[in-house]
Design brief:
The complex is a heterodimer of chains A (330) and B (325). Chain A is mostly helical and 330 residues long. Chain A is built from 15 helices and two strands. In chain B, helix 2 packs across helix 12 and helix 7 crosses helix 8. A two-stranded antiparallel sheet of chain B has the order 1-2. Helices cover 78% and strands 1% of the residues of chain B. Classes of the chains: A mainly alpha (330), B mainly alpha (325). Chains A and B meet through helix 6, helix 12 and helix 14 of A and helix 5, helix 11, helix 13 and helix 14 of B.
């Protein structure tokens, strides 16, 4: 199982390298350090949210309300930043608390009322966006203070703050997923919910955590969102959820649950980011972007299934044994 | 199973009637023939999308690409008309495009076995990309006068044409599901694909037809939308995607597959349309409509799952009392 997962990431990594090479050959400016940095900087928000989404998808859930959550938190972060006495700590607190509350609402409905995750988040997507638009009356939050907007460009110890935050988020998520009981429970729940609850995992609590964590990360992302754009539109983040889900899926997470790696999702984010950047650099009409992204998505998931089937046929017996082993160890 | 389904439709119907009464009280002009007809006009576009989505969700699938297919259809119709000057050829090719897009989804899902949500997530972006490339991101609006009939015309004095089309398609879909072997196979595949294979159902064929059917419905919806707004644009169908899935689920179709009716979906679609229209008449901000539609979906499902919630709460209280005592 381990080697299989590694293989999947390897394939996607090769694809990333291949795409980058093609772009470099056509426009050498692609490979300059400043351009590479800008690709990372432009996709920090996507990467942070993809970390949370990976865990959600590993539990076989899905959250299509994250775009609305992003807009919701961003507006309240912006309103907080406008209060003269506010500082980084209060802004951070507002963003994270806002995100956690929205995520918890999803989690409670999914775990408590046993409504499927996609349906709950479809509903809450509209509820969050609707209440946000109602509250702001469609008005943008503008004239944000300097100390807040400069957050995005300030460097600490030579690293821009967004990248530091991203590294922290990746580290924390990796720690949770790989080195805690909770992380194992997350993978176990996605692998087989019935067995997970038989071995004593409180599946409701795990679901709650995963969605609340997704919300918290969205809250953190929303702080960077406002700082990056300096004005916040109440429609911010509309259909961003599809970008996040696409990145995670390209990275190899299985929507049926049980597998998916953070590294894979990061590669997925980079593939999307590199494509977006490359299409602009190569002066291709931007309309082609959706065609390419769509094709890559379709190819990635189709190849995945074909590969899985092949390896399944090759070692059917071993597969079953390994699956059982993975279920115990995860 | 059947009892559960019926109780859901009953709850929804009561909810719908209550909604009508509330709207009547708050906005006296709501319950007039003219207004009700305009409600049906507003609901038919995404209602037609929802018909296809319903059939797909019954097979335990999902289709995120229907909005993009509708958008692509509008572009194809406008471009073919621009090139050939024949409206009939344009519309036929548009619907053929929808069918092909649906079949493309169907092949990947049925023959290769990729989960529907992944395939359609990809094709949603892909079809939208094709529409953007074809139209270069522009709106096309040089369409002939006759084209507007479907989206803006009336039959028998004051019945909107699209309402009639929606009604006919709803009846056809309902009959297909309830009265034909194909319909029974659709439910069988959704209930238990393995058992259906062993009972001789060709699951891949059923799925292929189901996705093609949804593609055709999306194409018809796209045709009507572009006729109503007199333009063709790649993103025309996108707003209806989430609405049509939400309306289907609201109508009692189980997202895990196996159950659901067109009747339920039509009520689900009506609830959304009545909410939008009624709130408009009362003068509520359009922003609140979004909120209330989301809330309606969650509330109806909460009522539906009341038994589960009750059990959980009693279990929780029991456990806590035990630990106290």
């Amino acid at each position: 199982m381990r080697s299989l997962l590694k293989k999947r990431e390897c394939v996607m990594f090769m694809m990333l390298i291949g795409i980058s090479l093609c772009i470099t050959i056509i426009t050498p400016t692609f490979i300059t350090p400043s351009n590479l940095l800008s690709i990372v900087m432009n996709n920090v928000i996507l990467a942070i949210m993809a970390m949370g989404m990976t865990l959600v998808i590993v539990t076989s859930g899905i959250d299509v309300s994250v775009g609305s959550q992003l807009g919701f938190s961003a507006i309240f972060v912006g309103l907080m930043a406008l209060i003269p006495s506010s500082n980084i700590v209060t802004v951070l607190a507002v963003g994270i608390v806002c995100g956690i509350l929205l995520g918890l609402l999803n989690g409670i409905l999914i775990a408590g009322a046993e409504i499927p995750a996609i349906v709950v988040s479809l509903g809450t997507m509209n509820i969050f966006r609707g209440s946000l638009l109602l509250y702001t009356n469609g008005k943008w939050v503008t004239s944000l203070p300097m100390w807040y907007t400069s957050l995005y460009n300030t460097s600490v110890l030579g690293f821009p703050i967004p990248i530091l935050i991203l590294v922290l988020v990746i580290g924390l998520t990796y720690f949770i997923a790989q080195h805690t009981r909770l992380g194992r429970s997350i993978y176990a729940l996605g692998g087989n919910p019935a067995i997970a609850s038989r071995v004593g995992i409180n599946t409701g609590k795990v679901t709650l955590f995963v969605f609340a964590y997704m919300g918290a990360l969205t809250g953190i992302a929303s702080i960077l969102y406002g700082a990056q754009l300096a004005t916040i539109d109440p429609n911010a983040g509309t259909s961003f959820e599809l970008m996040v889900i696409s990145a995670v899926v390209i990275g190899g997470a299985n929507v049926l649950g049980g597998s998916g790696s953070l590294l894979g999702s990061l590669i997925g984010v980079l593939i999307l980011g590199v494509l977006q950047n490359g299409i602009i650099l190569m002066r291709i009409e931007p309309y082609w972007q959706n065609v390419v992204v769509g094709l890559i998505l379709i190819m990635a998931v189709t190849l995945d299934i074909i590969n899985n089937r092949k390896s399944e046929e090759r070692k059917k017996v071993i597969y079953v044994a390994e699956e059982a082993k993975a279920g115990v160890s995860a | 199973m059947i009892q559960v389904k019926r109780s859901h439709e009953l709850i929804l119907l009561l909810f719908f009637i209550a909604l009508l009464v509330i709207m009547r009280v708050l906005a006296p002009s709501f319950l007039t023939v003219d207004n009700l007809l305009s409600v049906t006009q507003q609901m038919s576009e995404f209602g037609i999308l929802a018909l296809g989505v319903t059939v797909i969700i019954i097979t335990s699938g999902i289709d995120l690409s229907v909005g993009s297919i509708a958008g692509l259809t509008t572009i194809v119709i406008a471009m073919v008309y621009g090139l050939s000057g024949s409206l009939i050829a344009a519309i036929l090719l548009g619907i053929l495009t929808g069918a092909l897009c649906g079949a493309f989804n169907g092949v990947l899902i049925a023959k290769i076995g990729v989960p529907p949500i992944l395939v359609t997530l990809g094709t949603m972006t892909f079809f939208n990309g094709i529409a953007l490339v074809l139209s270069k991101g522009n709106a096309i609006s040089d369409l002939p006068e006759e084209f507007y009939f479907v989206g803006q015309g009336y039959l028998f004095g004051n019945i909107p044409v699209q309402t009639v089309i929606f009604a006919i398609l709803a009846v056809i879909t309902s009959l297909l599901l309830a009265k034909t072997p194909w319909g029974r196979r659709v439910y069988a595949v959704g209930n238990n694909p393995v058992a259906s294979v062993f009972s001789g159902v060709q699951v891949d064929k059923v799925l292929l037809y189901v996705y093609t059917f949804a593609g055709i419905m999306a194409a018809i919806a796209g045709w009507i939308i572009s006729s109503r707004v007199s333009t063709a644009r790649a993103d025309l169908g996108a707003v209806y995607l989430m609405q049509s899935i939400a309306a289907t689920v609201l109508g009692g179709t189980n997202i895990a597959g196996g159950s659901g009716t067109i009747f339920g979906t039509v009520i689900g679609v009506s609830v959304f349309a009545v909410l939008a229209n009624g709130l408009n008449l009362i003068g509520v901000s359009p922003f609140a409509q979004n909120l209330l539609m989301g809330a309606a979906l969650i509330v109806v499902l909460l009522i539906n799952n009341m038994v589960i919630i009750k059990n959980k709460i009693t279990l929780f209280i029991k456990l806590n009392l035990k630990s106290c005592g």
